[in-house]
Fold this sequence. Notes:
This protein is an alpha+beta fold and 503 residues long.
Amino acid sequence: MRKNVILSLILISGLWMPAAAQKGQANNSKKTTGHELIFNVKNAPDHKMLLAIHFRDNLVVKDSAFATMPGKFIFKGDNSYDDGLYTLVSERKTPYLNFIIDKGQHFEYSLDTLGLSENFSVKNSEPNQVMLNFQRKNNEAQKKAQTWVEKIKAFETTNEKDSLTLYRQKMTDLNKEMVAFIDNMIAQYPNMLFSKMQKIYKQIDIPNAPEMLDKEEGLEWQRCYYRTHYWDNVDLTDGRLIFTPAFEPKMKDYFDKMLKYMEVDSIIRYTDILLEKSSHDSLMSRFMIDWTSRFFQEDQIMGHDAVFVHIVKNNQLKGKCPWMDEDLISRYEKRVTRLENILIGQPVPELVMHDTTMLDDARHMFSTHRMSKPYVILWFYDPNCHTCKTESGKLQKLYDSLETAGTRNFDVYSVAGNYDDINAWKKYVKEHNYKWTQVGGNVANYDYLTHFDLNGYPGMFIMDKEHKLIANRRIEIAAIPEYIQQWERMQQHIRERNEKEGK
């Protein structure tokens, strides 16, 4: 049946697309043979049709054609389209048909406006005939399943066990029938794009864990197996898959769910494996590098900026992205340079600054490396910043409550960053009388604004007793104790694991 909801339909100029796609050149064909796609749409009221390709979460308009006669639309040209899954869209943005372009680009498709696949037919396109056969089989199965689900619900109400068993078995058999149909299609047409797209949807069979492992170890073994074999059903050497709706959800599931809360080193390892597997197809490789770079650049999880830095240093900055101009490469390089100083685990250079007396006297100069507690919060603020005042107030309450309870395990090294108004800073310190170290002014032993990439206030960093960063962005003030506890638990887990593995 025809979809009732269409993905966002956009012009091709509004979205990143590979260069080949922008120019309308075939990516997989050895020679350009042009295209002639004829669509006969019964009872279509339209004067114009749009041709849109699936890319990421969008349908991207590739072409349009006016009716040569009522219901007949011909897309014809000297260039070839990119292989992928397409949608024929009416001028009112109603989707009429999903079809495949898989090398052959001279075919004729007859359909109606109701989306009834049993009334569709296609000439001169084996890939579309295979896809149409699948759609008919799937629609038939859905109708049966809907009927049997309704019967199961009814028999559950009346508690007719024999009938329940019968229709539940019918559902099981129907599912096995569809799986067998798809498996047979994939085996018969292994290189066909539609087969590869359907293969992506197949679940990975996870074996039982070795008996020698306990329950938790067994679960971890199975999780590791799934991560390792996640891409088994995806041909990462076929860039055409990025023009299907099956591919990007696979990416999102992998990075958003499976890798999201792993240690950064593990995320990097799995990402490198994926980029290596996709490096043998230029289109797929470009998509993967751009997608993962953007994902980790925008990711808000603490520490994941290290993954972004790793990807860029090993790809964009190593000449592996010829599609990028020098200006873009330069921006990546500058961003990486700024981030490298403040990645989790990086040592923090000793920062020495004056207090409000501004005297060049050891008693009035304070170092980040000479604090008494095992953790130090580096707190950068502007005395005239309203948010800074509010957050500093929250920090003071936390500081005082933990001090009263005898559980405060951090010091605060507070730096006033507004050099232009030292008197305002002095007044601010006097009025608030915070109990932690207060420094500022326009003199320090190094340019901390650049080192910490400070471009707004307030800024927060937390370092441990070895003067290494454990937090490189501002978190909720009330969450600081829990964050430190989680960090300590994670470090303990890593130590125990390394001892177990003999590292």
